Amino acid sequence: MTRPLIELADLGFAWPGQTELLDIPSFTLQHGESLFLKGPSGSGKTTLLGLLGGVQLAQRGTVRLLDQALDALSPAARDRFRVDHTGYIFQQFNLLPFLSVRENVELPCRFSRLRAQRAGQRHGSIDGATAALLEHLGLAPELLGRRADQLSIGQQQRVAAARALIGQPELVIADEPTSALDADSREAFLQLLFAECRAAGASLLFVSHDQSLAPLFDRSLSLAELNRAARPQEA
Ligand SMILES: Nc1ncnc2c1ncn2[C@@H]1O[C@H](COP(=O)(O)OP(=O)(O)OP(=O)(O)O)[C@@H](O)[C@H]1O
């Protein structure tokens, strides 16, 4: 039987000098599953995403991604593993402002040989993959050469999604990526993101306060349901 994409067991994490923020007995995300994760501000959602990428390590327990325990890897190997297998869409998109749309989308392929190979295999070349993704996400081809700081918010979001998806990482993590959009654009963007994740066979872990989006996902979960360290008002 295939193991889940993500498996957490007995995870405990506290920021230095603070009480325990996360105490998660178990959590799994299946291959190809889309999960909506909600929780109030400060409840630890972004911290959990950092643990899933191995950006932080837990004091207790294990995080396994693709059956690899992240704490068993050296820091450099962990960084490589993260970029090979995970695409991120951040709330502020975190595009590099002085790079073009194309250069931003292709960044993961510079850091990950695996993603460069997969992009080439699927679309003939990395440039071909970039063009195809941006077309699927509804971005006009003439924008490819434009600097990222000359894009609208909606365009930046599409570029951030293409960057997360290029080279077919098994996991796409999105941290509040729709909060800057109106309700119609939010749902339209999500449908594009779902379609691209499905085409790539990727799982999607989507963090948001916006409960109205939850029914669009395979599964919806509140962090307080997982986290024994949650304060009562977070439930
Ligand atoms: N780098 C850090 N160093 C120390 N404490 C931190 C750090 N990052 C987050 N925290 C603390 O951890 C707690 C949870 O923060 P986190 O950003 O994970 O919450 P969140 O649920 O993502 O919040 P939001 O919805 O506002 O983004 C907060 O009390 C925060 O102050």
Strand residues, percent:
15-25%
Please identify which CATH superfamily we are dealing with.
P-loop containing nucleotide triphosphate hydrolases
Overall tally of domains:
1
Q: What's the end-to-end separation, in Å? A: 34 Å
- What is the second-level CATH architecture? 3-Layer(aba) Sandwich
Regions with little confidence, pLDDT below 50 for 5+ residues: none
Q: Given this structure, which CATH class is correct?
A: Alpha Beta
Question: Structural class of the helix and strand makeup?
Answer: alpha/beta
Mean pLDDT: 91
Strand order across the biggest sheet? 6-7-8-3-9
User: What is the fold named in CATH at topology level?
Assistant: Rossmann fold
The biggest sheet, with number of strands, parallel, antiparallel or mixed sense and barrel status, is: 5 strands, parallel
> How much helicity do the residues have?
25-40%
Total helix count? Answer: 8
Give me the count of strands. Answer: 9
Listed once per kind, the bound small molecules are:
adenosine-5'-triphosphate
Cα Rg? 17 Å
Order of helices and strands: EEEHEEHEHHHHEHEEH
GO molecular function, one term: ATP binding
Pfam families: ABC_tran (PF00005)
Keywords: ATP-binding, Nucleotide-binding
Protein name: ATP-binding cassette domain-containing protein
List the helices and strands and how they pair.
Elements: E1 6-13, E2 22-29, E3 34-38, H1 45-52, E4 60-65, E5 68-69, H2 75-85, E6 86-89, H3 101-111, H4 113-123, H5 126-136, H6 153-165, E7 171-175, H7 183-200, E8 203-207, E9 219-222, H8 223-226
Parallel strand pairs: 3-8, 3-9, 6-7, 7-8
Antiparallel strand pairs: 1-2, 1-4, 4-5
Bound molecules: adenosine-5'-triphosphate (ATP).
Keywords: ATP-binding, Nucleotide-binding
Organism: Pseudomonas benzenivorans
InterPro entries: AAA+_ATPase, ABC_transporter-like_ATP-bd, ABC_transpr_LolD-like, P-loop_NTPase
